């Protein structure tokens, strides 16, 4: 009866929604000829013939439209007005004297960190994961810089008692008591022996020798995984709405393993060891691993031990992009996460003395610049340093900078530090310009001086104006929060890329998740920029990095674990990967913001995570400890090296042929031979066979395979071409044969293999590389 009422209520809600949507569409169609625009005016240019600003505004408006009226006149937060215009009228108004910018109005919605909505979780997660009691039994362990427990993000209202299986503790220490934990934040520990053995005792006047987070990074990642919903959250009014983590019903435990001087392997391993002992289900590490063999990588070793106990491990891919082969944390038992953007931005607008306007981003919240245009200078021309364009500390000459806006290139020092350098020299603002390495990527920061960060194309246009005008001028205006930015997602320029240096036969990263301009909780011990000079204090901060994308996957893994407690870490990884998407709704491939071109599996792995689809993947590529042991044998690891990684005595069978490519992984990477002749003109072919096994986690069904490829240099044959599953957990094996022609060394190409029934598409990327 209860189920019937729920269904009727759902149907009624759906009908109301459809009816409302239809009426909205009808109204929008009626008024689609005109849109609302916000016009920024440069007050200092108002002609003396006008007695006041309103008269001037109205005259400017009437010059492009006799019928348009002002909706509002703005006199305090900025100077200008709003009105409804056609696109042609708006374009015409842009060219009028005194008009700084004409901005199309955005549609605001009260939801943030915004990633739940962007990922399809905008409704209560209970609609997708109805058994909240199962979800609340899941514990995510976060290894990071600690936690700020007073935040509302750790409110435990409505949560049941701590699971009886939990064995963790709330460690008492500097500024941290047993009451700092509750039914949401169920455990907190710190590990510093390795750190102190190098740097000596921790100075508790500077840093808390306890789980207390004095940095902010750990609080941000932990609230992203499981943070409780907090209404009216924002950073200085940016990204306003209700902030929440991915798995609001799950619990979180904190393991502080990183300190001012870094994260030491011994402390990392101690934290991972204790986390597994305490009973975590998921481990989240937004920490860079070493690019070394698995038996020399503390994170890989600790992760293997956790995986063997049934713990899912998510790690950040690194921020070494857009260069190739920049990944860390590439062990196949780790889920390696790259970063993509959201459909949200924080616009800042640069207006130049030549009348041109450009857009960038900023989270600046202080006193705005004057509407008047100000002198504009290039850091490289007003510096005593050979790297003056980078605006390094102490490099700018005050006499050449005072009262001016300075253009600074990205690189060497932090983005916000450059602004302080400008401020210290007397500059009034900064335009932060991208270089080739960051392309069109726009990362917003809470600058301490009026700043607009701009992409490479805009940077070049601004510099062209500066170097061609004898008296260049500019000003900067700030708009706030903009939603529905397209295309989205795009792969972040900083996100580390493949191929996998350690094992080219394993495609990494595994997938991407939101990692740019993410709003989440913050420490009360540091400002949003993390700079010592930043005395502002906030409960939420907006920052970027694969450190931010990793906890999204950790939290989503917790949701899947709650919904499917019987799934192994490999099954959860498979569900997240095989249901990820690689194209936009228009069918075009996800873009790489660094190049503006389509991204590849070396950039995004299996694609961008799609958690709702991951709940019901149909089939999974499962893997056990035995599979990973076979993988290490294929790498020719000795028994000693295998034990170093696995803590298990194991000897590879003599005479048995082990293949790295046969690891039951949800993606394919196929290293191929190049010809020995010049130019790759040889007709020699390479034949490679990979074997995979699929496990049915859905209903009985027959799946048929399809393969799409961008190259004719590789023939791909799948045997068999269909798989019929008649019961849950049934396993079926198939073989893929790749017959490849020789290509020049360094050539790469990509394909995609998909198993489909009437409801599911189980997708796997394929990457080819000729060496």
Describe this structure in words.
The chain is of the alpha/beta class and 771 residues long. It has five domains: 1-26; 35-104, 2-Layer Sandwich (Alpha-Beta Plaits); 115-341 and 491-611, Peptidase S8/S53 domain (Rossmann fold); 347-479, Glucose Oxidase, domain 1 (3-Layer(bba) Sandwich), CATH 3.50.30; 618-623 and 664-770, Sandwich (Immunoglobulin-like). It has a seven-stranded parallel sheet with strand order 6-9-5-12-13-14-25, sandwiched between helices. The termini are far apart. 52% of the residues are buried. The model is unreliable at 1-6, 8-32, 106-115 and 677-681 (pLDDT under 50). Residues 1-26 form the signal peptide. It is found in: Secreted.
Give a short synopsis of this structure.
The chain is of the alpha/beta class. Helices cover 23% and strands 26% of the residues.
As laid out across the biggest beta sheet, the strand order is: 6-9-5-12-13-14-25
What is the approximate shape?
globular
Which stretches of 5+ consecutive residues score pLDDT under 50?
A: 1-6, 8-32, 106-115, 677-681
CATH architecture of the largest domain: 3-Layer(aba) Sandwich
Return the structural class. Answer: alpha/beta
Distance between the first and last residues' Cα: 64 Å
The radius of gyration over CA amounts to 28 Å
> And the CATH topology of the largest domain?
Rossmann fold
Number of helices, where a helix is a run of at least 4 consecutive DSSP H or I residues: 18
CATH class of the largest domain: Alpha Beta
Major sheet size, sense and barrel closure: 7 strands, parallel
Beta-strand percentage range: 25-35%
- Give the rounded overall mean pLDDT: 88
Number of strands: 38
Biased composition (Basic and acidic residues): 206-218
Domain Inhibitor I9: 36-111
Protein name: Subtilisin-like protease SBT1.7
Active site: 144, 217, 547
């Amino acid at each position: 009866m209860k189920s019937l009422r729920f269904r009727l209520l759902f149907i009624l809600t759906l009908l109301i929604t459809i009816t409302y949507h239809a009426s909205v569409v009808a109204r929008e169609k009626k008024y689609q000829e005109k849109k609302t625009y916000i016009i920024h005016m440069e007050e200092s240019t108002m002609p003396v013939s006008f007695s006041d600003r309103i008269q001037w505004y109205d005259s400017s408006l009437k010059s492009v439209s006799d019928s348009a009226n002002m909706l509002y006149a703005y006199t305090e937060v900025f100077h200008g007005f709003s009105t409804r215009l056609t696109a042609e009228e708006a374009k015409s108004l842009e060219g009028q004297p005194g008009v700084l910018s004409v901005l199309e109005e955005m549609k605001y919605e009260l939801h943030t960190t915004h990633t739940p909505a962007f990922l399809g979780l905008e409704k209560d997660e209970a609609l997708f994961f109805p058994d909240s009691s199962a979800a609340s039994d899941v514990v995510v362990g976060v290894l990071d810089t600690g936690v700020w427990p007073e935040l509302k993000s750790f409110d435990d209202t409505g949560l049941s008692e701590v699971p009886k299986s939990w064995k963790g503790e709330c460690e008492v220490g500097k500024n941290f008591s047993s009451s700092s934990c509750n039914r949401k934040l169920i455990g907190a520990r710190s590990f510093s022996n390795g750190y102190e053995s190098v740097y000596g005792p921790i100075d508790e006047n500077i840093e808390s020798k306890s789980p207390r987070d004095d940095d902010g990074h750990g609080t941000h990642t932990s609230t992203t995984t499981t943070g409780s919903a907090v209404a009216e959250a924002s950073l200085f009014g940016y990204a306003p709405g209700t902030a929440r983590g991915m798995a609001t019903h799950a619990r979180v435990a904190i393991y502080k393993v990183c300190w001012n001087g870094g994260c030491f392997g011994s402390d990392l391993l101690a934290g991972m060891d204790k986390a597994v002992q305490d009973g975590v289900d998921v481990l989240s590490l937004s920490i860079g691993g070493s690019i070394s063999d698995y038996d020399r990588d503390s994170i890989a070793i600790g992760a293997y031990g956790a995986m063997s106990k049934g713990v899912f491990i998510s790690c950040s891919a690194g921020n070494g992009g857009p260069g190739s082969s920049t990944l860390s944390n590439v062990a196949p038992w780790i889920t390696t996460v790259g970063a993509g953007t959201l459909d949200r931005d924080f616009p800042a607008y640069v207006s130049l003395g030549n009348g041109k306007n450009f857009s960038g981003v900023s989270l600046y919240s202080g006193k705005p610049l004057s509407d008047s245009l100000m002198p504009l200078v290039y850091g490289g021309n007003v510096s005593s340093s050979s790297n003056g364009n980078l605006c390094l500390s102490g490099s700018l000459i005050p006499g050449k900078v005072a009262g001016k806006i300075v253009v600074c290139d990205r690189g060497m020092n932090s983005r916000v530090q450059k602004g302080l350098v400008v401020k210290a020299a007397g500059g009034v603002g900064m335009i932060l310009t991208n270089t080739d390495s960051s392309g069109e990527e726009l990362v917003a920061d809470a600058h301490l001086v009026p700043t607009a960060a701009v992409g490479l194309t805009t940077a070049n246009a601004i510099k062209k104006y500066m170097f061609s005008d004898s008296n260049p001028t500019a000003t900067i205006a700030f708009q706030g929060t903009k939603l529905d930015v397209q295309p989205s997602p795009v792969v972040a320029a900083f996100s580390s890329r493949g191929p996998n240096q350690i094992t080219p036969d394993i495609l990494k990263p595994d997938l991407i998740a939101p990692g740019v301009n993410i709003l989440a909780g913050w420490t009360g011990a540091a400002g949003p920029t993390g700079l010592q000079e930043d005395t502002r204090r906030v409960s939420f901060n907006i920052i970027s990095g694969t450190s931010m994308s990793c906890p999204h996957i950790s939290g989503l893994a917790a949701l899947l674990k709650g919904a499917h407690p019987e799934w192994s870490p490999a099954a959860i990884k498979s569900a997240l990967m095989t249901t990820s998407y690689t194209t936009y709704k228009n069918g075009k491939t996800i873009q790489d913001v660094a190049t503006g071109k389509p991204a590849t599996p070396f950039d995004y792995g299996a694609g961008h995570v799609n958690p709702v689809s991951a709940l019901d993947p149909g089939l999974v590529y499962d893997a056990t400890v035995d599979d990973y042991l076979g993988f290490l044998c294929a790498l020719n690891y000795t028994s000693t090296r295998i034990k170093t990684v696995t803590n298990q005595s194991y000897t590879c069978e003599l005479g048995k042929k082990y293949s790295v490519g046969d690891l039951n992984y949800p993606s394919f990477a196929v290293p191929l031979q190049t010809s020995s002749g010049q130019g790759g003109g040889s007709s020699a072919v390479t034949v490679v066979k990979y074997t995979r096994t699929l496990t049915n986690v859905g209903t009985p069904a027959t799946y048929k395979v399809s393969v799409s490829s961008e190259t004719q240099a590789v023939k791909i044959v799948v045997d068999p071409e269909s798989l019929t599953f008649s019961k849950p957990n049934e396993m079926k094996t198939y073989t893929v044969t790749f017959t490849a022609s020789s290509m020049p060394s360094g050539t790469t190409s990509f394909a995609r293999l998909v198993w489909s029934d009437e409801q599911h598409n189980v997708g796997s990327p394929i990457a080819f590389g000729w060496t």
